[in-house]
Specification:
Helix content: over 70%
Largest sheet: none
Number of helices: 11
Distance between the termini: 27 Å
Radius of gyration: 18 Å
Structural class: mainly alpha
Strand content: under 5%
Low-confidence stretches: none
Order of helices and strands: HHHHHHHHHHH
Number of strands: 0
Shape: globular
Length: about 180
């Protein structure tokens, strides 16, 4: 990172990644100094999300959407953030606005569906089964899919199962930022 940061104009994503790296090393002052250099609000949002600052990330995503309302990537990333942050209703609102701006965008349709399903998943087994089926088609979601399958089995058993605990432990090892 030192070489990248020494460049005359390192990209915002490089600065953000370096800030996350130093934060993870416990060098909070250095991470904070780097994040202070971020003028790209989407990169700042990614940094804040990566370090677990949900409120800061949410505010930065809001600003990024206001600054660049025609940027599909920012819209997708903001919706995905709200889903990951456990705010499916907020994700649904963002996805509805994005669908009007970018009709027919398959990724936005998928994110909107995911947010909608997540809003119902807490109490509705059929919705959880629908989400599992959707995630199962994406190999990148294997850990989440397995965790949800075991969650469904635990829910149906009326108690947490050892398999659910194992699946959640595996998910936390594979994708610590998700949990």
């Amino acid at each position: 990172f030192e070489r990248v940061l020494a460049a005359p104009e390192p990209g915002a994503d490089a600065v953000s990644a370096a800030a996350v790296f130093f934060h993870q090393l416990g060098e909070i002052g250095r991470a904070s100094a780097l994040s202070g250099r971020l003028t790209d609000t989407a990169a700042l949002a990614r940094y804040r999300a990566a370090i677990g600052d949900v409120a800061g990330a949410r505010a930065a995503w809001h600003d990024a959407l206001a600054e660049k309302p025609d940027d599909r990537t920012i819209a997708r990333d903001a919706i995905a953030f709200e889903i990951a942050a456990g705010a499916p209703a907020d994700a649904q609102r963002l996805a509805a606005r994005a669908a009007e701006r970018f009709p027919g965008d398959a990724d936005l349709v998928r994110l909107r569906t995911e947010a909608s399903v997540l809003a119902r998943v807490e109490t509705d087994d059929a919705s959880l089964e629908q989400l599992i089926a959707q995630l199962a088609s994406d190999p990148r979601s294997a850990a989440q899919t397995q965790a949800l399958r075991t969650m469904l089995a635990s829910r149906r058993a009326g108690r947490p199962t050892p398999e659910f605990a194992d699946a959640m432990a595996a998910l936390s090892r594979e994708q610590p930022a998700l949990l």
